[in-house]
Amino acid sequence: MAFAAAFITAFAAATVSAAVPTAFTLEMNPPTASKEAFVEWMAANRGEDKKFLGQRWDRYQVLLRSKALTNDQTKRAFLLTPREEFVRKFQRVHTYADNFLDIGFGVTISGPNAVSKMTSVLDIQKGDKVLEIGTGSGYQSAVLAHLTDKVWSIEIIKPLAERTRAIYDDTIARGYSEFKNINTKPADGYYGWESAAPFDKIIVTCGIDHIPPALLKQLKTGGVMVIPVGPPGAQHVLKITKEANPDGTIKISRSDIFNGKVVPFVPFTKLEGDAIAGSHNK
Ligand SMILES: C[S@@+](CC[C@H](N)C(=O)[O-])C[C@H]1O[C@@H](n2cnc3c(N)ncnc32)[C@H](O)[C@@H]1O
Question: At 189, which CATH number?
């Protein structure tokens, strides 16, 4: 019996290390000299499927040209994040398409362009504390986990939050140790995550017509938030900065990261008891 247990443990460990042969560190940097070099390195070190790696590289090239990826660390995070783990199996053929995809429960995984631009604008540094509102598929937080080891993410749809938690737990078991740094909870993100605040960066992935006061409060002075703001289905993605004036008062600045382009997001909903009831729009 003891021998059988030891054999199973050893076999499980071997399976995990075979899935992701080299553990992630924030210094990990796949080669970008050519598609072939990238794909070969990732297959050898991360154990990922060469078909998806090739598609990830091709989307990466488009994101570089469109200037959605604008800093080195976010470029690296895009290249290291297996988006195919976070789309539904029947959608996997579309994993690296430009558009958002249905993930069930009436919501979507944002498209690579929006994720890349919003993450680039946050300019996340190692050790930054980052809060995401709207875990959804889990892909955005997976990108964040390749930038910092301190990520918190809130999802309002409980069964979706549980499904995505199971994806993180499964990928962690296969060797994606970086996802251990993603803290998740099913809740209404309008009120932020008080016990973990303050945050250096906040990313909101659902649309609302105002900035939730609790999120602004939980953003550090010197911090940055990106948030889709506007009427239903017609938001502008804003970069919000919170700075201290010389006299100690707080200055909030906003700019449109897509230069006036409307980007529709799923609504920032609210709870009544355990049920989702309408949105937080005023
Ligand atoms: C565009 S989708 C998901 C994007 C997600 N970041 C991803 O990578 O897949 C936005 C998500 O926000 C969630 N959401 C909406 N209102 C919310 C709220 N009040 N608190 C937390 N999550 C909310 C939705 O249920 C949905 O899953």
Answer: 3.40.50.150
The one catalytic residue among 34, 110, 177, 279: 110
> Which ligand 1 atom sits closest to the C-alpha of 265?
1
Q: Quick check: is 120 catalytic?
A: no
Q: How far apart are the first and last CA of the chain?
A: 63
pTM: 0.93
Domains identified in the chain, total number: 1
Mean pLDDT value across residues 258-266: 95
Identify the domain containing residue 141 by its residue range: 2-279
Mean pLDDT for all residues in the chain? 93
pLDDT digits (tens, 9 = 90+) for 184-201: 999 999 999 999 999 999
